[in-house]
Write a structure and sequence with these properties.
The chain is mostly helical and 480 residues long. It is 74% helix and 2% strand. The strands form two sheets. It has a three-stranded mixed β-sheet with strand order 1-2-3. Strand 4 (346-347) and strand 5 form a beta hairpin.
Length: 480
């Protein structure tokens, strides 16, 4: 291991300085007139940082006495966070600009939220965890209410803030109990001080509260109540960001806390994760069936998908962690493609999110219809799409860990969930032609993104587009 505090946190320092300098610089220039340039430049910074990490050395590095960990697991997480954040910024800037609410602060607030996520996935201490989590959350509360003249957007931001404050309280109280019964906030210290055979009741209460706080961030049932309203109310590019990048950060943080801090009492937290997983899969599957708004449907779909990801965590094995990382990478890729299509849905220049508006787009825009068909099949887990292999991996992890009943539950929930995806496919190809069909998309960036996303779902099957080996190395570094 290497101990060199400043060099280890250099990406976080660089991104923080960039966001602050750009914020001050934009205030003293033409402000919103350069918003598009700032958005593109921020995306380029994300991509450069991601490639910096891809080509960096693969050893484990520790900073600030173990509070910050830079290992293969955190690097993998940060690479996905930065690349997906860059893509979401690029695909949303035109949408927001045309509707008049692209402000120069938007990409910079997202940059600060990404800094928080990078701290989260490298946290080796409960205090570092909380600092990263709150930096991410405060930025997300702001962008959820970014469309200030929209009642729904303001409501989304307020609901997210109030419920987020509740989850932070749960997490802090759980952290306080954990500190009280273990004598330290460092993950490795907690791991050493927790009695694997008979952990104290107070520590188990702390563990349950920490899990509750983290479950809110991944929108797992029963801490999911904010998700549909925030997804529907927030501007669509913001919803695309909320549905992808923070979920990756939160799941990776969840995994690190469970293994690095509570790894020797797996039997105690495994039961809680199994329950969260089953509830999330089935509520997401059933609640999505009756939705008429595409964004709300994707919210419940996201809840169900977090349930599938938690199957890999519940397995409690190295392969389980690998399956979670693979699942989340594929999940993000699928969702970016779907949200690119959602952003292109408009009628007479106005944004449309009703599912019924997709009726017979196979006649008016066949290329988009095929891309959406592939992405929906992949979300449903229909072979041979990549989404099928994502689910297959987490189910295999559960079976290998003797959680046969959890794997069966996952299959049943997936079958139920396939209904609402197939309902949209039916509308696309066999629905009734609407009186006023959707406008054909004239945005090359969105077309490129949804085409690339759909292509990955088909052609990435060969090797999970190179992710499998990286995920395996990341999982190995966490558990060894």
């Amino acid at each position: 291991m290497i101990y060199n505090d400043l060099s280890i946190i250099l990406p976080e320092i660089f991104l923080s300085l960039y966001a602050m300098v750009a914020l001050i610089g934009a205030v003293y220039t033409s402000k919103d007139e350069i918003a598009q340039k700032v958005t593109w430049f921020t995306a380029v910074v994300f991509i450069l940082l991601a490639f910096w990490m891809i080509f960096s050395e693969g050893q484990t590095e520790i900073a600030f006495g173990g509070m910050f960990i830079n290992d293969a697991f955190s690097r993998f997480s940060k690479i996905i966070i930065l690349l997906s954040g860059a893509v979401v910024l690029i695909m949303g800037q035109d949408y927001m600009s045309k509707r008049g609410f692209l402000r120069f602060e938007y990409p910079l607030v997202i940059a600060l939220s990404v800094v928080g996520m990078m701290v989260m996935v490298s946290a080796g201490d409960l205090m570092a965890l909380y600092m990263g989590l709150e930096l991410q959350s405060l930025a997300l509360y702001v962008i959820a209410a970014f469309k200030r003249d929209s009642l729904k957007s303001t409501e989304a931001g307020l609901k997210y803030f109030v419920l987020g404050a509740l989850s932070s309280g749960l997490l802090l109280y759980g952290s306080a109990l954990t500190y009280g019964y273990s004598g330290t906030t460092l993950f490795n210290g907690i791991l050493e001080n927790v009695n694997a055979n008979s952990p104290s009741l107070g520590l188990l209460f702390g563990l349950a509260l920490v899990i509750s706080g983290l479950a809110f961030k991944v929108s797992a049932v029963p801490f999911h109540m904010w998700t549909p309203d925030v997804y529907e109310g927030a501007p669509t590019p913001v919803t695309a960001f909320l549905a992808t990048v923070p979920k990756m950060a939160a799941i990776c943080l969840f995994v690190r806390v469970m293994f690095d801090a509570f790894g020797n009492i797996l039997g105690d937290w495994q039961k809680i994760i199994v329950l969260l997983s089953i509830l999330s899969m089935f509520l997401g599957a059933f609640a999505a069936i009756g939705q008429n708004d595409f964004k709300r449907l994707l919210a419940y779909s996201s809840i169900a998908h977090m349930g599938y990801a938690l199957i890999g965590l519940a397995a409690g094995t190295e392969f389980g962690v690998q399956s979670v990382l693979e699942y989340m990478t594929i999940y993000i890729t699928m969702n970016i493609g779907v949200f690119a299509i959602l952003m292109s849905m408009q009628r007479d220049g106005q944004s449309v999110t009703e599912i019924a508006s997709l009726s017979m787009i196979s006649e008016t825009d066949p290329a988009k219809a095929i891309a959406l068909l592939i992405l929906l099949f992949s979300l449903a887990g229909v072979p041979p799409m990549l989404g099928f292999f994502a689910k297959f991996e987490v189910l295999r992890a559960a079976i290998n860990a003797d959680l046969i009943y959890l794997a069966i539950m996952g299959v049943l929930a997936s079958v139920i969930g396939a209904f609402y995806y197939l309902k949209i496919v039916y509308l696309i190809y066999f629905g009734e032609m609407p009186e006023t069909p959707l406008d054909n998309s004239k945005t090359p960036i969105l077309k490129t993104i949804w085409t690339a996303s759909a292509a990955m779902m088909v052609f990435g099957v060969v090797s999970l587009f190179g992710v499998e080996e990286m995920a395996k190395a990341a999982a190995s570094s966490l558990l060894n």
